[in-house]
Amino acid sequence: MADRKDVSPPHTRLIAKLEAIGRVTEAEKSALADLPYRLRSFPENADLVRQGDKPPECCLIVEGFVCRYKLLGEGQRQIMSFHLPGDIPDLQSLHLRVMDHSLSALTPVTAAFIPHEALHALTRAFPGIAALFWRDTLIDAAIFREWLAGVGRRTAKARIAHVICEVYLKLRAVHLADDGGFDLPITQVELADALGLSPVHVNRVLQELRADGLIVSKGRFVIISDWERLRAVGDFDASYLHFRSEAA
Amino acid sequence: MADRKDVSPPHTRLIAKLEAIGRVTEAEKSALADLPYRLRSFPENADLVRQGDKPPECCLIVEGFVCRYKLLGEGQRQIMSFHLPGDIPDLQSLHLRVMDHSLSALTPVTAAFIPHEALHALTRAFPGIAALFWRDTLIDAAIFREWLAGVGRRTAKARIAHVICEVYLKLRAVHLADDGGFDLPITQVELADALGLSPVHVNRVLQELRADGLIVSKGRFVIISDWERLRAVGDFDASYLHFRSEAA
DNA sequence: CGTGTTATTGACCAACATCAAACTTAGTGG
DNA sequence: CCACTAAGTTTGATGTTGGTCAATAACACG
């Protein structure tokens, strides 16, 4: 788990993430490394950015888990995505001034805040990076679509299996998981808010998945014991993640 | 309705749409007008682009209604958005080579297919247009998020009211609707597939909305008789559409 | 006038929600 | 090292929204 302190600079995971979705030249890498930033820490449950804000900067997650959510009229919450180190979940604020949702820390989080001007200058100087950033936001959109399909049409069991597959692959892409299992710091309540279910039902379905021998989980630590079957149950096909290897 | 043939050139509604979400200079307008294209017609229900395709061009809808959908494992369909004249629903294919969903004609459709090279050249020459295009895909993503929230957490009644509000505003933005009502060429089956409901239930809820005096509908023609209450029932707040007037 | 699509109805059912309580677990401070 | 606490998980009983199935009615179109 994370007992070893992560001392790598903010941009290393960003580069790993960008390399998972496209090609990055050496010149681009050093430009990314030169980006100015301001580090900030957030305790669990704090908002990094809030619906209605007009942020002058984007946040690059350096450590910890973040979720994107919306509060609805009846006081309910819908979580719309999970983000991990290397992600810039509010990259969209470069072109959409007002946030239409909030970002919240699922664990203690360290984030590097990068001024919009710096990012605009970077994209102007490196069209390749602009294209990659655009591509990244397009992949986010593809993930929203997949979640929409899940919440709209898949059973509770499929939805849960599906999201486990997805997070696992995203973690692998930034070298935060391997076949030995991984740390999934998402409570059942949060899973419920992400999947449009009640926490009670999430709990029951999780037990089914364990009973079926698809996953083993102990606290926040999860092992996928039967990838193929989990994938089948979740109706999971990774192509919507548009990883370089699969998308080509 | 559409008994009057629409003779305006393909780019006029595109410009109207872009102006709804941002500013467009005269130079940019004429560059948009100069874009090469190839017109194609599709009958109701035909796919314009299909999941798995690697299209070399983007399609600008000139006339008719289009939906974006995915087929899931169990043979179910999830519709993920509706598109109307002026939209380029597969703009994302500029940076995501493989389509992860399909586009289908809800009515007979005319679309202008514009080669990727031409669009890339345009965005290179006019960074303002590149930004607008990016912004447009970001707004699409915002709409996916809103739908996700709806399907995840809102009641059937709220979802239906919500989508009627949304389509109405989008139609108004391209001057295809006014307070006198509008043509909504979406069957109840399609609504059901968009909202994650069964057609039977959509029918019943629609009747409730009519009984409550929120809408009047006769065939495909819809009149919103009480915007304020419809909006309240649908928990609708237009800010996620990021129209220029509201987003500022 | 048929004929196919879409809308509507009714009877019945299942997946998942809600409520409320108990149980675990991981921290925290004495 | 052991209470003590708060967060998260698990369980059981019961309720409801919305699904399924199947038949009928309205249209729209040639």
TrEMBL record, chains A, B:
Annotated keywords: DNA-binding, Transcription, Transcription regulation
Pfam families registered for this protein in UniProt: cNMP_binding, HTH_Crp_2
InterPro entries for this protein: cNMP-bd_dom, cNMP-bd_dom_sf, Env_Response_Regulators, HTH_CRP, RmlC-like_jellyroll, WH-like_DNA-bd_sf, WH_DNA-bd_sf
UniProt name for this protein: Crp/Fnr family transcriptional regulator
Ranges for domain HTH crp-type: 154-228
Origin superkingdom: Bacteria
